Amino acid sequence: MNDTNLIEDLRLLSPPSHGWVLVVVAAVVVIVLAPLISRAFRRSARVTVAAAGPAPWTAALAALEHLTPLLCTERSRDYGIAATGILRGYIETRYGLRAPKLATEEFLVTAGTSPLLPAEHRASLGRFLELCDLFKFGRYAAAAGELRQLHAAAVAFVLASRSPDSAGTNLEAGA
Predict the structure, then answer these.
(1) Nearest 5°: CA angle at 122, between 116 and 126?
(2) Do 140 and 81 contact (CB within 8 A), yes or no?
(3) Alpha-carbon distance 171 to 111, whole Å?
(4) Does residue 62 sit in the same domain as residue 41?
(5) Which whole-number Å values give the CA distances from 158 to 9, 31, 125, in the listed order?
(6) Tens digits of residue pLDDT in 103-152
(7) Nearest to 88 by CA among 170, 7, 157, 5
(8) Burial class (CB in 10 A: 0-12, 13-18, 19+), 99
């Protein structure tokens, strides 16, 4: 074997191509950004739909009003499940907090650190959700009077947390 032939053969080789690195980087960027962009579009679509429908407090007050037949000891668990769902949906729509998918403790931590939910509402909301958890998971059967007080607290929370420009409207919905 001749040494000059080997060196000449090596000079004929092309330099390595790094084009595949760009393809891999582009694929990773697309995979990372696609869910973020999708989530942003879903949130903007949700805001648009919410703006077109009734105000979130109006819908929540109407839904809470439909729960009045559940204000009896035998139905306290049903009331706890339904009322929690209504308030969590209201909080998600009104404040943009992801409430329905979190456990109560997780939600209270998120709400406690969020500047979106005013501090004066956090304590009463936390107590309400904890009591409803007792109905749902602890098999606690509340007396009708306790349920009426809890219901009044839920209605008061929604009324107190309305936007300032709506404070004079929809008062009859909470009555």
Answers:
(1) 130
(2) no
(3) 26
(4) no
(5) 81, 40, 10
(6) 878 877 877 777 777 777 777 788 888 888 887 787 778 788 888 888 88
(7) 157
(8) buried
Q: Which domain holds residue 132?
A: 55-174
Those residues with Cβ within 8 angstroms of residue 161's Cβ, 6 or more apart along the chain or in another chain: 57, 94, 118, 121
Same structural domain for residues 83 and 110?
A: yes
Tokens linked to 104: 């109560």
C-beta of residue 96 within 8 angstroms of C-beta of residue 44: no
Structure tokens at 44: 């903007």
Band (pLDDT 50/70/90 cuts) for residue 172 is very low
- Looking at residue 25, its amino acid is V
Write out pLDDT tens, residues 21-64. Answer: 888 888 898 898 888 888 877 766 555 554 567 888 899 999 99
Its pTM surpasses 0.90:
no
Domain total of the chain = 2
Side chain identity at 27, as an amino acid letter?
Answer: A
